[in-house]
C-alpha cells in the first residue's frame, strides 16, 4: 500500500481554502441563527395597517449580535478549557458528587494549556478554537495523502475532504472539542501505516488513546497490519514491536494512575461515565433499538434529537451494508482492505455500545474515516447516491449550527 505520492503546494492551498470557506459558512450560520430564531420565543404577531401586513419584531435587526469566541465556549468545551486552566476535579469518586470532569481525556486540554502559556496574550477560549482549526487543516492534508496512497484520484480525494467539512456536526472541528485532534492523530496513524512506518503509526495511535476513548482502535489496527505483513516471517529483531505495543499503553496507563491518585479509582474516567454521565457499556445498537421501540424528536431532557441521530445512524450504517454487498470480493481477496473494514467497524460499533440513548452519536460517527472512503466508492457509479448524502449533510450542518448557537443541548 506504500506510495511515492507527495503533497504539492497547489493541493495544500486548495484544502486551506476549503477549510476557510467551510468555516466561514459555519460562522455565517451562527450569525443568522443567533439573530433570527431567538427572537421568536412566542408565536409571531402580525399587524395589518391598511393594505400592509407587518411582522412585529422584538427588536430591530440593526441591533444584531456578532458571535464571539465566548459563544463557542459551551457544552464539553467548557470542561476541556476548565481542565486546561484549573486541572481535574480533586475529590474521591466514592464521595457523593455531581458530574466530574475525569471523563474528558487529557491530551487536548494539556495542549491548550501549553500553547496558552507560550502565547499568553491569547485567552484559553481563543487558543482552543485556533488549535482545533489548525489540527483540522493538518488532518485533512494527511488524509488527502493517505487517500492518494490508497489509489483515489485527485478529484475523489478532494471530495473526501469536502464530505468531512460539510458533515452535519463539522462545527465541532472548529471549537474546543477533541474532534480535530483525534482526526489528526488518526489520520497520521493511517498515513504512517500506508508508508509502513509502523513505529510512528503506533506513536500516533498511542497519543489518540488519551484523546478519546476509542483511540486504542488506532493501535489495534496498526498491529493487525503488522500481523498481515509479517505473516509467519517473524525474526528476533521483531521483538521491538512487542516492546512498542507495551510502550503504546503508557500514556493511557499514566492517565489512569493519575486518576487513582486523584480520585482513589484507577478507572475513574470509565466508572464516572455510568455514575453521573448516563453512559454504560451495552449490547451494540441497543440505543437504536430503544429509539425504534419508542421514537421521539427531542428527548425530555433535551440532550438528544432522536430523529436526527437515528437518521444519521441509518445513513452511516447503510453505507457499510451497501459496501459489503458491492465490494465483498474486494474484502475477501485483500487482507489489508479487510483490516481497514474491521477498523471501521470498531470505530462505529463502540459508540453504538456506549449507552441506551443516541446522544452525541452523530458527532462520534464524524471521525470514522473509512466511512467517507466507502461512500465515495459506492457513489462512483451512483452519482444520485452521492447527491443525496451531500444534500443531507448540508441541510443538517446548517441545522446543527442554528441549534448550537442557540444553546440546544441535543447538538452535543
Structural class: mainly alpha
Beta-strand share of residues: under 5%
Helix content: 55-70%
N-to-C SSE series? Answer: HEEHHHHHHHHHHHHHHHHHH
- Shape annotation: globular
Any overview of this molecule?
With 412 residues, the protein is an all-alpha fold. It has one domain (9-411). The protein has 19 helices and 2 strands. The mean pLDDT is 91. The chain crosses the membrane at residues 12-32, 127-146, 158-178, 198-227, 239-258, 307-326, 338-355, 361-379, 386-405. Its main location: endoplasmic reticulum.
Keywords for this structure?
single chain; 412 residues; mainly alpha; two-stranded antiparallel sheet; 2 strands; globular
Provide a quick synopsis of the model:
This protein has 412 residues and is mainly alpha-helical. It is built from 19 helices and two strands.
Please write out the topology.
Blueprint: H1 9-36, E1 45-49, E2 52-56, H2 69-72, H3 76-86, H4 107-118, H5 124-149, H6 154-166, H7 179-194, H8 198-208, H9 216-230, H10 239-247, H11 250-263, H12 268-276, H13 286-293, H14 306-326, H15 328-333, H16 335-349, H17 361-365, H18 369-379, H19 383-405
Amino acid at each position: 500500500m506504500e506510495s511515492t505520492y507527495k503533497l504539492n503546494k497547489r493541493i495544500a492551498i486548495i484544502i486551506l481554502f476549503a477549510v476557510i470557506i467551510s468555516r466561514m459558512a459555519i460562522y455565517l450560520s451562527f450569525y443568522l441563527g443567533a439573530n433570527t430564531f431567538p427572537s421568536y420565543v412566542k408565536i409571531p404577531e402580525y399587524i395589518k395597517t391598511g393594505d400592509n401586513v407587518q411582522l412585529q419584531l422584538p427588536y430591530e435587526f440593526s441591533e444584531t449580535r456578532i458571535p464571539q469566541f465566548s459563544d463557542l465556549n459551551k457544552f464539553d468545551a467548557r470542561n476541556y478549557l476548565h481542565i486546561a486552566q484549573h486541572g481535574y476535579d480533586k475529590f474521591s469518586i466514592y464521595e457523593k458528587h455531581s458530574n466530574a470532569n475525569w471523563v474528558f481525556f487529557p491530551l487536548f486540554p494539556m495542549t491548550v494549556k501549553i500553547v496558552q502559556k507560550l502565547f499568553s496574550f491569547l485567552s484559553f477560549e481563543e487558543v482552543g478554537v485556533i488549535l482545533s482549526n489548525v489540527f483540522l487543516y493538518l488532518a485533512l492534508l494527511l488524509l488527502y495523502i493517505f487517500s492518494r496512497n490508497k489509489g483515489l484520484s485527485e478529484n475523489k480525494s478532494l471530495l473526501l475532504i469536502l464530505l468531512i467539512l460539510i458533515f452535519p456536526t463539522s462545527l465541532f472541528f472548529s471549537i474546543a472539542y477533541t474532534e480535530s485532534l483525534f482526526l489528526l492523530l488518526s489520520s497520521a496513524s493511517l498515513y504512517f501505516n500506508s508508508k509502513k512506518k509502523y513505529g510512528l503509526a503506533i506513536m500516533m495511535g498511542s497519543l489518540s488513546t488519551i484523546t478519546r476513548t476509542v483511540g486504542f482502535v488506532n493501535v489495534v489496527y496498526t498491529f493487525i497490519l503488522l500481523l498481515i505483513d509479517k505473516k509467519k516471517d517473524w525474526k528476533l529483531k521483531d521483538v521491538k514491536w512487542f516492546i512498542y505495543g507495551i510502550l503504546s499503553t503508557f500514556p493511557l496507563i499514566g492517565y489512569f494512575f493519575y486518576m487513582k491518585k486523584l480520585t482513589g479509582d484507577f478507572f475513574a474516567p470509565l466508572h464516572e461515565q455510568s455514575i453521573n454521565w448516563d453512559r454504560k457499556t451495552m449490547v451494540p445498537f441497543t440505543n437504536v433499538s430503544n429509539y425504534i421501540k419508542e421514537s421521539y424528536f427531542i428527548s425530555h431532557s433535551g440532550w438528544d434529537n432522536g430523529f436526527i441521530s437515528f437518521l444519521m445512524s441509518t445513513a452511516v450504517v447503510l453505507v457499510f451494508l451497501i459496501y459489503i454487498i458491492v465490494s465483498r470480493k474486494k474484502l475477501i481477496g485483500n487482507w489489508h482492505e479487510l483490516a481497514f473494514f474491521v477498523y471501521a467497524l470498531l470505530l462505529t460499533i463502540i459508540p453504538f455500545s456506549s449507552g441506551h440513548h443516541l446522544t452525541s452519536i452523530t458527532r462520534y460517527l464524524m471521525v470514522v474515516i473509512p466511512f467517507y472512503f466507502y461512500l465515495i466508492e459506492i457513489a462512483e457509479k451512483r452519482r444520485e447516491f452521492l447527491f443525496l448524502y451531500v444534500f443531507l449533510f448540508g441541510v443538517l450542518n446548517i441545522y446543527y449550527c442554528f441549534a448550537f448557537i442557540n444553546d440546544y443541548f441535543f447538538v452535543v
